[in-house]
Structure formats: C-alpha cells, structure tokens
Amino acid sequence: MRDVSVTGRGITKFGKNTESIKNMLVEACREALIEAGRPKVDAVFVGNFASGSLANQEILGSMLTNELGLGSIPSMKVEGACASGGLAFRQAYQLVKAGEYDSVLVAGAEKMTGPETETITNAINHAMDNDSSEGASGLTFPGFFGVLANRYMYEYGAERRHLAMVSLKNREYAMNNPMAQFQKATSLEEIMNARPITEPLGLFDCSPISDGAAAVLLEKGKDGVQVLSSGQASGTPLMQEADDLLHMPATYESGKSAYEASGISPEDIDVVELHDCFSMTEIIAIEELGFFDKGKGWVALENDQTKHGGTVPVNTSGGLLSKGHPIGATGIAQIIQIVDQLNGRAVNQVENATHGLAQNLGGTGAYSTVHIFRKKGA
Amino acid sequence: MRDVSVTGRGITKFGKNTESIKNMLVEACREALIEAGRPKVDAVFVGNFASGSLANQEILGSMLTNELGLGSIPSMKVEGACASGGLAFRQAYQLVKAGEYDSVLVAGAEKMTGPETETITNAINHAMDNDSSEGASGLTFPGFFGVLANRYMYEYGAERRHLAMVSLKNREYAMNNPMAQFQKATSLEEIMNARPITEPLGLFDCSPISDGAAAVLLEKGKDGVQVLSSGQASGTPLMQEADDLLHMPATYESGKSAYEASGISPEDIDVVELHDCFSMTEIIAIEELGFFDKGKGWVALENDQTKHGGTVPVNTSGGLLSKGHPIGATGIAQIIQIVDQLNGRAVNQVENATHGLAQNLGGTGAYSTVHIFRKKGA
To answer: Would the CB atoms of B59 and A72 count as touching at under 8 Å?
Structure first.
C-alpha cells in the first residue's frame, strides 16, 4: 500500500452564489489543480447530494472532467447525504493507496439556493428513510436533533447555553474565515434568544442553506499533507431503530476504524473539523470520537476545551454552523481546513499542529467518515 | 492484485413495480446473498441515477445495509446517469482486487413509474449538461440518438429497417426472459410502423420507462465467474462538442482499457450485453467495441451476426429495449446476464460460452464502463 497526500486544494466562498453548480466546481478544482502544479489527473470523483432535485443536474463527474479538459479519464458522483464529500474522498484515497490511480481530483458541491424553501426541505428529507412513517409524520432534521438535545440535557445535566456555546465558538472562528457564509459577530444572548426552530434549537443552532464547492487533489507519495487513514461506517437512518439516541454508532465506528488504521489516538490529534450540522451534533461527535467522555462534551464547552489552548480546537473553519453547509461540499471543505492547518496557513491557525482529523456525517447517522492527516515530513 | 469473482446474483422482474425502491433493492440483494451462501459482506455499493427526483429517496446505501441487517459496514450510492450500475460495480471490483474489501454487495435500482411523464423526462434530462443551451433548446435523449441515426444512415448506407432489426432481435430474446418488461411477439413491420418518437426512431427503437433492481456479490478468489478487467472512460455530455457524431469515444476507450487489462480481444468474446438505450446505440456500440468495422454494424445486423450462430450474440437478455431500463439497475442486470451465460444457466444460453463482456453507457456518451468476465475454471 502506498502513501497518499493532499497536494492541492481549492474552495469557493460559501453562501448564496449565483453561479451554476458546474461553474462552482470548476472554480474550486482549478484552484486545487494550480496549487498542485497541474499534474496529470487519473480520475475525478464528485461528492454531491441533491443536484438532481435542487439544480436539475446530474452527471457532475463527466461534466466537470470535460469542462476541465482532462480527457477521457474515469469519473463519477458519490452520494451519501451530507457525507457525500467524505465518501468521495475515501474512494479516492483507497484507490490511490491501492495503486489503481496515481492521482484523483476529488470535489464536492451543492447548489441549494434558488428553489422554494419547501422544495429544499423536501430534498433534504430525502436523506431519511421515506419508506418509514417518520418523514411522513413530520420528522425533519432539526426535529431529530432537537429531540436528541432535549434527551441529552435531561440525561447529562447540560443546559441550553451549552448548545449556544458551540454556535458562538464556531461563529467566532468563522469571523476570521473569508470563505465563510456568516462573519458577523454575535453573542451568547443573541443565540439563546434567536428565533426558535425546533425546541430547544434556535436559528443559530442549525446549519444554513448554502451554495459552494470545494476540491482537493490526492496524489501518491509524501509530497503534501499525508492521509494516514480512512474510516467509514453506516448506521440506521431510522430514529425508531436507534438503540440509544445519545450515541451515534456510525460516528464512533468510523472513528475507531480510522484510529486503528493510523495508529493515532485522540490524544495525538491537534485539530479537528467535525460535522456540526446542529450545535447538538458537535457535542455528541466530540464524545463519540473519543476526545471527551460520554456525557461530558458539554463540560468541555463550558471549560473552553474545544478552542485554541484547550484539549483540541474543533471547527476552526467556523464549522457547518457558520462557514455554511453546501451539503456535498462540506466533507471536502472540512478536509481543506485540516490540510491548511497542517500546512501552517489556516484561518485560526493552531500552532505546531502535526495531526488533524475530519469527520463527516450523513443523515441522522446513516453514514460517517473519518480521515486522519499528518503534516508533511512530520 | 487478487482474483475477483461474482458469487451470487439477484434481480427483480423489470417493468412497472408497485414496490418501493428500497423493497426492490432488498429483494434483489437477498437473492444474491442466498445464492452466494450468505457470506460476510464488507461493503454495500448502490448504483442509482434519479431516486431523489423520482422516488423522493436518497441514502440508498445506508438504507439497504440497514434493512439487510449487515451492521455498520461502509456503504454509498454511485451516480453516473445510465452507467450508475456499471460504475458501482467497477468501484467494488477495484477495491476487492486491491484488498481493501474481501466482499462487496453491488446493487442497482431505479423507481421510475409513478410521477407524471414530464417529471420523468425532466429527470432523465439531468443526464445532459444543463448549463448549455442544448437541453433548453429542446434536445432530449431520443432527439440526440435520432440525429445520430440519420447521420449514420446517410454516411454508411444503412436503412431504417436495420434499426428495426436491432429492436426485433432484442424482443425475440426477451420473449424467453421471464424478468423482461416486454415478452410479446412483434414483427419488423410492426416496429417500422410504430408510433414515431423522433425521426427516424419509433416506439420500439427506444428503451422504456421501468422499475427494477439487480444485485451481485463480488468476492475475492476464483469461486465464481471471474472478473478479468474493468475499463471506464468519460466523454463529453455536449452534442456540440462531439468531434464526430458517429463515434462514441467513451465506449471505445472503456473497451480498449478493458481489453488491454484482460489480454482478451473482441474475437475471444462469446457473448455480449451492451447499452441499447436506442436501437441506434447498439449498432454504434458493436463497432466501437471492435466486434465489427466502423460503418459496418448494420451489415452485421442484416447478416444475423449478432444472434446465436453469428459472430457474437448481443443482448441475449432482451437488452434495454425489451428487458427494460430501470436506469440504475441496468449495468448490474447486464452483468447478471453475462454471469448467467458463463454459468450455463442463462435465458437464450450461448453454448460453450467462456468469455463475456458487459458495456454500460451513461448520458449521450458521458460515461462508459466495460467489464470482461471468464467462466469459472476456464
């Protein structure tokens, strides 16, 4: 098995973007290819969730390959709800590691603005099992994570303000990120008093509707930030089948696989990007990934342990909550922030960071990927 | 690199199916898993094109894995228009060959009936580049392949009846296939006089709207029909960018890669399933894949060279034209027919078949995959 590195990265500004999904993909990919020194590309993988429903466009792999003038090389789109980007990256990593390809361009994108809000909400709900009664009875993603938040507070003694602390931290990080959707200052009070979305989550506890694209180039060898391992797991897409609402088995299992394959432990990780689709999701993820004990994630927030100077800075890009969440782009954007951190050129740079981790969740725990990275030469 | 074999296969009857896409997938997968002797499965890949737009459902990988009780193993959906099934199969083959997984369940499915015809046509058109003016100016898939057919007849001297011969051959094969959508006898006259769809293509020259699912289990080793090689290529999704309408570079390139990787030549192939989304497409494909000279495919039809007893029997399952074309399922269903042929248990069995080829096309040549197979022990 060969070494695999990220040798280039590109990203569009997240938020409302009047460009098509194709043009956003091309922008991000051109930046990544130029940064990597325009090497030969052997394949193109695109992570995307809902371009058919929201952008009237599929065949993103072929369309992008053609537009970039890369010739007749293999291409495809990978879908796994909000984990689409992470899944596409994983396929590329596995195939470069195995020697099937020497280099793969991996992009993620979503064009979400434009349609009516109801159309967008319906498309997002395609990430639930709609054969079940759950979607039909009115369950939405904010609804699901709201129930988790209530249960979490009841079981572990957390308070509403601990959820708000996640949103505030990520907004404060986003204020330094020119690619982030939200860069306006806020306060714990504003977050706590914001328009309620679903009890107990308010507007600032929920990731927004966003357009955007992100891309990385993976190449064999060690001439870049090295990908040490990939973990992936599936979980139930049904709330009624969850054994314990406060566990996300896919997050845990994907982390476990990635730690085992890399020989790296949570204590070795210097910086983390994880899937804060809701404030509650970040608290559960920092527990499932082994950074804090089960039920103690909120204490870590209370004690600033997920900021610079704490146990491990989490979502220094601003996270999904404030950087934005163009679904298919998210998994790649998370990886870009980790790559930038390990290259010493990130917004909210963590000093002397040598190991980073990116976790990407799909659905209500239907998919999770974890990738672990090491600084070049470290 | 390890040997990889198909050890089990399952398929639903194609046509209108009142079951959900999940239930169709489960039916096909259970059959494949039982046939393979219920081995441990390491990952689940699903090929699907438009389940978001047509079936209000994504996350097919996770949903299927969960419904089959396979635990937290990795899963994903792969999209590449009508080549989605072939692309999913290719990923599985590459990763088992490389040792990343020992076994992968690969399924394909599409649920197309239900919505209004206009909704279905719009969803199918997501397989064009909708940033261009082509779709907006009214180009459809029948329109594209109709233009090709007119050009082909003009350049090479073929006649309308040669197109009809493709449809008739495939219907005659489908009459013996209990899983096929159309099993009613027809005649060259009926095909020639059928309702026109787009000049010169009539109703029988166009593949239908279908529901269906198909699945195969891939395992390391030689205990099944062996996968000798995989070829994949991308092509332009834009008609205006085609250098020559009568060439399908993706089909040619994917065939070339697969032949080179296997050491097998077109002359060694005993039976073929290829992508006859339109009668015209079959004639171009038998040329691009090297079975007949460029411009001479129609002569092969005239001389029965693509039937039993000819150069190579093509689409003995009935093809997309008569077996049906549930988009995501098609690539897997093609492979099932080849596997059945090499196991000596196919409908329209080709005697002493030892090598088979399956070709799956996406869009107007945006994607093509070719897989070459060898009989167990041959």
So the answer is: no
